[in-house]
Structure formats: structure tokens, C-alpha cells
Specification:
single chain, 198 residues, alpha/beta, Rossmann fold, five-stranded parallel beta sheet, two-stranded antiparallel sheet, 7 strands, globular
Length: 198
């Protein structure tokens, strides 16, 4: 089994802000980040505050939109992302696929675009951030579960494999949010600046 972070690991940089702009426009995203600037600043020092600030910004931009709209936008946005992929990581994904390894993305990005990305790259499963919906399938503005970062990445991967843990696990990440995921792996690999600092 091979588990890959997405932003900065498969891609060269963050994609979440780009998706929010793609869906809501620059003005809405700028207003949301300005409104939540104090919470975002607190998030630099505290993971729970960081998660709360992320949820607040997502809610400000996406609340009230239909789930179908987000799924459709995710398909369109995903089609733009291959130009931002790291060629070496894509090559490594191909190697794992050729070896018959089960492939999973474990990311704090939104599943609306991770799902079509995963399909295009030949992944078997996606673990990512989902938004809660109401009875009319409109986004409430809240996350459907915890942010998939840090210890939650490892917990979600372990919950997914349940009683069939990987005999051999490769894991790939690029940031402090991936440390718990890579700590699970028999073959941890850091990508980007983290790789160069080790």
C-alpha cells in the first residue's frame, strides 16, 4: 500500500485556496480571509485554532451551495491540476501502480476535486475533507468530520484499512502535517524542502 499527501507532495503547492477562488471568486475569498485573520493568526501557534480557522473560511465561501455544484466544480478544477503536479511524484505513483500496490490519497484538501484527481492518477481510494450538508444537500458551512491533518491523517488511514493493515506501507508527505502519516510507514519519503533538509 502507498499513501500520498496531496498539496506539496503530488502538487507543487497548495490547491485549496485556488479551489475556493475557482468556486467563490477572489473577492469572496479575500473577504473571508480578512474576516478570519485573527483566527488564522492564532492557528499559526495552535493546531485546533488552525482547524477552526480553516472551517470558518470554508464556511464563509461555501455555505449554502449545493453539493452537486461543488462536485461539478471539483471535476472542472481537477482538470486544471496536472500542470501543477510534481513529475517525480507522478512517476513514483506509476511505479506503485505497476507493482500492484493499493494507492490512497490522504489529504486535508477537499474531496470534491481529490476524487477526480485520484481517478485520473489511478488511485484506489481518497481520504480527504468533506463538508456537512443539510436535508437539501446544501453545505452547512461545517466540516463533516475532523480536518485531515497531523494525527488525524494516521487515524483515518488506520480506520480505513481496519482489520487489513498493510503488510508494507509506503508514505509520502512534505510538511509537519504529514509527520504522523509517515511515522506509520515502513518506507517514509519526504518530498520537496523537507527531503532536502534530511
Amino acid at each position: 500500500m502507498a499513501a500520498f499527501d496531496f498539496d506539496g507532495t503530488i502538487t507543487q503547492r497548495d490547491t485549496l485556496a485556488g479551489f475556493l477562488i475557482f468556486v467563490g471568486g477572489r473577492t469572496a475569498v479575500a473577504r473571508a480571509t480578512a474576516r478570519r485573520s485573527l483566527a488564522m493568526a492564532a492557528g499559526l501557534r495552535d493546531d485546533r485554532a488552525r482547524d477552526a480557522a480553516k472551517e470558518a473560511v470554508l464556511g464563509d465561501v461555501l455555505r449554502g451551495r449545493s453539493e452537486a455544484e461543488l462536485v461539478a466544480a471539483g471535476e472542472r478544477f481537477a482538470a486544471l491540476l496536472p500542470a501543477r503536479y510534481r513529475p517525480d511524484t507522478v512517476e513514483r505513483i506509476g511505479w506503485h501502480r505497476d507493482e500492484g500496490h493499493e494507492l490512497v490519497i490522504v489529504s486535508a484538501s477537499l474531496t470534491y476535486y481529490l476524487q477526480p484527481v485520484a481517478k485520473g492518477l489511478g488511485f484506489d481510494h481518497v481520504i480527504g475533507v468533506e463538508m456537512a450538508t443539510d436535508a437539501d444537500r446544501r453545505l452547512t458551512g461545517a466540516l463533516a468530520g475532523p480536518n485531515v491533518r497531523g494525527d488525524e491523517k494516521a487515524a483515518r488511514l488506520q480506520a480505513w484499512w481496519a482489520d487489513r493493515p498493510a503488510d508494507e506501507l509506503w508514505a509520502y508527505g512534505n510538511s509537519s502535517g504529514d509527520e504522523a502519516l509517515l511515522a506509520l510507514a515502513h518506507h517514509p519519503t519526504w518530498i520537496g524542502r523537507r527531503a532536502k533538509s534530511r
